[in-house]
Write a structure and sequence with these properties.
11 strands; 2 helices; five-stranded mixed beta sheet
């Protein structure tokens, strides 16, 4: 009889352990996050915003852009790790040949090259686009411009993991916290690149 009571007590302790651990985790203060490093805007922010500038950059004027379809997603956060809903996020990048759609040169048919979204209640955002090409002097990247609901802003660039050019790219190497600019890959299909953005 005494052994049964002891066994039941042990089971309760084991089953209750995750809740105890969770309680400890919840009671801890949020860790400060390092702000996402600033990067240059160029090249080539649109001279005029395209008429089609939604979150799906894979189709423009009814034509599907050539190239591998990818997703870019993440959250907009402050330095305390709190979500920033209602933020405005813009991206732009080159096509598979390394050409931008809005610099006076013809881009590939169906290539939108620019998109904008608002972050949701959890600070989340998502774009569907095509994998950018590479042009001389740079590694593969996507340009990002962010403005929070309170007016804080940031211009930066997202880089792709495992790119050979990352080690040679001057802008990436000079970033104070370059690891924060390299997205995390979640295999697809389509492959998803996770890029959380932290405003100071």
């Amino acid at each position: 009889m005494q052994k049964d009571k002891t066994d039941r007590g042990r089971r309760k302790l084991v089953l209750g352990a995750p809740a105890l651990l969770l309680g400890v985790a919840i009671s801890r203060p949020a860790l400060a996050l390092s702000p996402t490093p600033r990067q240059s805007e160029g090249p080539f922010y649109p001279r005029s915003i395209p008429t089609d500038s939604d979150a799906d950059l894979t189709v423009f004027d009814g034509v599907r852009a050539p190239g591998e379809v990818i997703e870019m997603a993440g959250r907009l956060l402050d330095a305390k790790g709190q979500a920033l809903p209602g933020g405005h996020i813009e991206i732009w990048h080159c096509d598979i040949n390394g050409d931008y759609a809005h610099v006076g040169r013809p881009a590939l048919p169906g290539f939108q090259g620019y998109g904008a979204v608002r972050t949701d209640v959890a600070g989340g955002y998502r774009f569907r686009t095509t994998l950018p090409g590479v042009y001389p002097g740079r590694t593969r990247h996507i340009h990002v411009k962010v403005r929070s609901a309170d007016g804080s802003d940031l211009t930066t660039q997202m880089y792709f993991p495992g790119e050979p050019g990352n080690q040679r790219d001057g802008l990436l190497r000079r970033a104070g916290n370059s690891e924060a600019l390299i997205a995390r890959l979640e295999p697809g299909p389509p492959p998803r690149y996770i890029f959380d953005i932290v405003l100071s």
